[in-house]
Structure formats: structure tokens, C-alpha cells
């Protein structure tokens, strides 16, 4: 290639990435504008709660979420507290982001009052609730406590918890990775180049995801947004470290940076593309999910991995070519310097010692590792992953959660978050009777557009109501009934009440549907459990087929898949023990094991691909058993560094006080370390070494001529 192209080509690559970063960088702060944390939007269209949500707009004026303000005082309310509550209601009614305010409702015990403020349809829930809470603090007299809870309050607390996902999360992840890279490589410049590559990949990913979300192609929420950032930083850094290791080797064997770049790309291209392709296919299996939130993560994560691959194979080679040996200063590799001995009695270093242990105690090593992993995996039996109450999603302080507790002490727990029953008008009276017969239902009304409150009494309550009667709104022959639940809307008792409601109304009318806040949570959990059962086997089969094609073997891929399964079980088992007995968490969302599995299996296979492609390369020259030891010696340092980096990036998710993300952070970070230190370093090399040429059946490496 002409000399000027050797300069122009890498320069052009760097300029293109600079342009992409300059456009994508500003989107970091605005992607939250296209994100939603509305749980109903994540359900499939087939869910009952989704159908009710879609139809409910026809029965009332379009509105936002209800904010429930509950007021109480130690020792009971005083004479002036009711006046203060009415003043607060008037203040809220004057707000432009509030559509309507209920009268002040006293509790039966006389110790509390509640006010329901319904937000306008276009109001930003987080901002509106923050303003309402400021009004509550300003208006109420000393000693009278006020809490803003209900659907709007919980959404606001969740939004506030996700507020650090753009800045704090990324800053913590990048700082942790930078420190690790400086310690490992003892170079001030190389970590900057690697993290620059990862950051540019994230800029490109965020830009594309933003465009797709704005166009309505994908759904983005705080969880998806946080996982995307961590996944791209971790994966891009991993791929960059693999290329960097090859480039440093090539600088010892080639005089010019250009020749070293070509050699490094030849050696790194196949494992990086294979590893990234495996992760992409693995996360795309989430498209089989019935939950829109899970389904959305598939293409979003695939986009992130694709740009991580692209940056590691284009931007990083261009940057390293520009800096050449100076990138590794002060430990610059020199041309013609001797390569270290990877195996044998003369080999030195940690990985040479590990190789000798594997060669000497092959069967003992893999048996002990397997037993230890299975023992850790026994904790899985205690994992509670069938859903958690909405009030437990935020870790730490939550005014909505505190308010929900106060509300449940003085009012029916489901006040402000009723179960909604959509059914034929002809069956109205029978539906009302069936609803009231369900244990856990405190009252029932019908939606009515012509009513100032938006509802009207039905059944016996309608007959005894004062003032002019208002007929329920009818849409397409259906009415919408609202059943107030005795238990808090996010409790197990409320979920059981909704199940009983569905059974009761189905007997009256098979076409009747039950929705609302509790039904949405119930349908989400049930669908999440179904997704977990379906997607995990699909991921295993797909990755197994990819490994068979890549390694040209059947036995070795089965070994690798088996190793990541026991590794995942161990991580999940230890996670269950930590969550229950150390952190005392209330349980887990069904998606926690699913997402942990997808990431750990895909990323665990990543490291095994790094190892086994190098083992295969060495085995073709030195034989299967010697190839294992040489491959382990050559990749041990870089894969361990990559594993520590990836674990640190996923651990950074723990800074966001969301239960789901904290659990994902622990399981994936611990699982990656376990996979790096035990599975890839000891278990897999020992099993493959023990199998010898049989591990590569039916490829030509399995023939005796190659067993040296």
C-alpha cells in the first residue's frame, strides 16, 4: 500500500469517529426525553391489563397519573388541620399541571385525610410531583405530615432514582476501568486510548438508539438505558484489550507499525467478531419475549455490541497505529525482543504456573472446580424471583413508599389505584354483584365522563346516592367499573384479589377484562416468568450452534456451554444467599435471572472464545494438549484483565438505587469474576486437556497425528 494511504486511511477513520462522537455526545443528556417508565407500555398487546388501558381513555377525560396526598399527625388531627388540607387542595387545583382535585376525604378513624390530584395528560410526572411536594411542604402547618404517593408518586421516585444514570453511572464506570487499566498496564496513555474507543462506541450507540426510540421503533426505559451504557463500556474495553494484546505481540515481531497492525488484525479479527457476534445473537434472543421491556433490550444491546466491535476493529487500530510503541510507554515493546516462554519448566509467571498445575493435576482440577461451582449453585433453591412490590423498586428513601404505608393505616390500601373491570353494559348489575362478592374489594363505582369526579355510584350505592344521578359512560357497548382494593395496590394480597376478580367476572361475562395498577404488575410478573422459561433454552441452543461452527467441533462447544451453565448457577446461587441473608432484599423481578443469564452466558462464552480460538491456533502447531497450555499462557493475562474490567463496569450499576439494577450488578459482576478466575482459567483448560484430541472431534485436530 502506498505510504500516503498508510497515513490518510487511519487519519480518516479517526476523523469519522470524531464526527460521530460530536453528534452523539450531546444526545447523552437528552435520551431520557424519549425514555418511559410506564409499566403498562411494557406489556404485550395481548395482556388483559394492556387492553383495559387502551380502552380506558374512552370512559373519561384524558388525564395523567393520579397523585395521592395523605396527611396525618402524631396523636391525631387537630381542628385547624382540615382547614390546612382544604387550602392545600385549592392550591393544587390552581396548578396548570393538575387536571382535577378531589374533595378532602377524611379517614374513618379521623386521624388522616387524603386528596387525589389527577395530573394533566401532558404533564411530566416527575416535575409535577416535585412541585406538588413543594406545595405540600409550604402550605402545611408544623407537625402535620404530608406525603405524595399513588401511581404518580411512585413514578416520580423511580424517575428520581434513575436521574443519575446519564452522569453518575458513566462516571463511576469509566473511573473504575481507568484505574484498573493503569494498574494492569502501567501506562498513562494506553488506558486513555482504550476508554476513548469505548466512549466513542457508546456515543454512536446512544445516537442510533435515540433515533429509533424517537421514531417509536424501540422502547427505552431507565433499565435499558443503564444496561446499554455498562454493556458498551465493558464490551468495547474487552475487545480493545484483546486487540491491544495482539498488537503488542506484533510490535515485537514487526519493525513498522503498519505491519504490526496488519498482523494484529489478522490474529484478533476472528475471535473479536466471533465473540461479539455471539453476544449479539444472544441478546437478540430477547426478541422472543412477550414483555416489550425485555424485547426492547435485545436490539438496543445488539446495537451497542455492534458499535463496540466496530470501534475496537477500526478506531483503536487507527489510534494505536498513530502512537505506535509510544502508546505502551514506559514499557514499550521493542522490535526483536524475545517472547516469553509460555509452557514448560523454563516458563515463568502466574499463567505458566497455572498451566503446570493443569497439566499435573488435570482431573483433580476440573472435578474440584465443578463440585465447588455446584455447591455455590445450591443457593438457587432460595431465589425468590416472582416479582416485587412497586414500593420496593427504589432502594433507600421513598416518600411514595412512606405515604403508601400511612395510607394503608387509615384508608383502604388500594385507594387511588383501583382495579378496573371492563365489561358489557348488559351485564352491569351482575358484574357489580360479582365484584362485591370478592374478598378484598372495598367498593365499586363506574367511570362517567359527565360526573365532576369522573365516577358514579352503581348498584345499591346508586339508589342511595344524593343529588342528580349520572349514568355510567358506555363505549362500544362496554362500561368501565373501578373496584377499590382493601390491600395496597402493589401487595401480594392485592394481586390475589385481582386473580379472584378475574375468576368472578369471567363467570358472569367471558368477555370481561380486569386491568389497573395491580393487574399490570401481575401480568408483567406472569409474562416475565414465561419469558424466562422460553428464552433461556433458546439462548443455549443458539450459542451452542455458533460455537460448533466457530471451533469446528462438537465436544469442545458442549464443554464450554456446560461450563457457563454451572458458572451461572453458582453466581445465581451466591446472589440468592447475599440478597436474602446479607442485604435482606424483598425478592427479585422475574427478569433478573433472565438478564443475568443472557449477559453471563454470552459474555462467559466471550472469554472462552478468546481462549479456545488461541488454543486451537496453538494446537494446530503443537498438538491439542500442548495447545491448551500455550493458549492459556498467551491469553491468561489479557482475559483476566478484561474480566476484571467487565466486572467493575457491571458493578457500577449498583450506584443507581434501583433494586433490579443492584441485583443485576451483583450477579453479573460476581459471575464474570467467577468465570474469569475459575471457569476459564482452571475448569475449561483442565477438561479440554484431559480430553486431549477428543475435545476437537470431529475436526482434523481429533486425529492421532495431531496429539503431540
Overall shape: elongated
- The number of E-state strands comes to 10
The portion of residues assigned to helices is: 55-70%
Mean pLDDT: 85
Profile the largest sheet.
Answer: 5 strands, antiparallel
Poorly predicted tracts of residues = none
Q: How big a fraction of the residues is strand?
A: 5-15%
Query: How does the helix and strand content classify structurally?
Result: alpha+beta
End-to-end span in angstroms? Answer: 40 Å
Give Rg in angstroms: 30 Å
The count of helical stretches stands at 21
Care to describe what's here?
This protein has 708 residues and is of the alpha+beta class. It has helices spanning 3-24, 48-56, 79-93, 125-139, 150-161, 168-185, 190-214, 222-253, 257-284, 292-323, 350-360, 362-377, 399-410, 428-436, 460-463, 492-508, 517-551, 555-581, 591-622, 624-651, 659-691, and strands at residues 66-72, 98-101, 105-106, 112-119, 145-149, 419-424, 441-447, 455-457, 478-485, 513-516. It has 21 helices and 10 strands. The strands form 2 sheets. Strands 1, 2, 3, 4 and 5 form a 5-stranded antiparallel sheet that branches. A 5-stranded antiparallel sheet has the order 8-7-9-6-10, with helices on both faces. Helix 6 (168-185) packs antiparallel against helix 7, helix 8 packs parallel to helix 10 (292-323) and helix 18 runs antiparallel to helix 19 (591-622). The radius of gyration is 30 Å and the shape is elongated. The model has no long low-confidence stretch (mean pLDDT 85).
